[in-house]
Amino acid sequence: MIKPVILSLSACLVLVACGPAPTETSVPTQPLTQSPTAQTDTAAAPDKSNSANSLDWAGEYKGVVPCADCEGIETSLTLNMDQSYQLSTIYLGKDATAFKQKGQFEWDANGSVIRLLNQKDGPALYKVGENQLFQLDIQGQVISGDLAENYKLKKQNKTEPTLTGVRWKLMEIMGQRVAATEPDMTPYLQFGEDGRVSGFAGCNQFTGAYETEGLRLTFKPMATTEKACLNASVEQQFLTTLQGVDNYSLNDSGLAFYKARTAALLRFSEAQP
């Protein structure tokens, strides 16, 4: 009885060994799901605001900073939207002559510190804060110590000129001076408090709508008269350039339109209507 059982078991083992190899079972791929926390982190966009894009930094800053061999350095630094600057310094107690410099500045990668380019004498690095500049040392660090508060330049709160109620006469297009003509056919524009803008493009009159928010400025498509013009190149360039504007600066030197804070596209001066 024992021998048949052994033979039976051996036969079963042979059948198993000779049978087809087991196939690999494919598991359906399931889409990955995010946890509520991961979804929240993905939805929350990083805050990219910085001094360069969130502060009204353009303007004039003044202060008297410490001096090693004089009573102090009376400093005036003006920052413009096209990233140009004007710097004036007077060494108090030594010479009343103002040393003036002009040039361009650049922002650091974080958009919080500016560097005055081609600055050979004097500080070149400033941290930009709300209505003030902090002079930095040559390593780009905030100056500390008992005199730290004296290394600040404060923004001057002047009575700012306004867009409305003024006729703005075109002076430059893309850095090129607008030639004077006789009779005067220079383009100009005027902003209304009702969100409308009108003016003269060099041959035809135009009107349209505009929107402002802070220093941001956009123009809607303009409607113009249809007078035939012998030379419409300036007019066409002027009206086309207006449509590309997205911000502006307005100070004592006049009105300027920009796109993405590059060099000024258009510059205007105040003119009597």
TrEMBL record:
Residues 1-23 form the signal peptide. Residues 24-50 are annotated as: Disordered. Gene3D superfamilies: 2.40.128.270, 2.40.128.640. PROSITE patterns: PROKAR_LIPOPROTEIN (PS51257). Residues 33-47 have a biased composition (Low complexity). InterPro entries: Cu-R_lipoprotein_NlpE, DUF306_Meta_HslJ, HslJ-like_sf, Hsp_HslJ-like. Residues 162-268 form the DUF306 domain. Keywords: Signal. This is META domain-containing protein. The lineage of its organism: Bacteria, Pseudomonadati, Pseudomonadota, Gammaproteobacteria, Chromatiales.
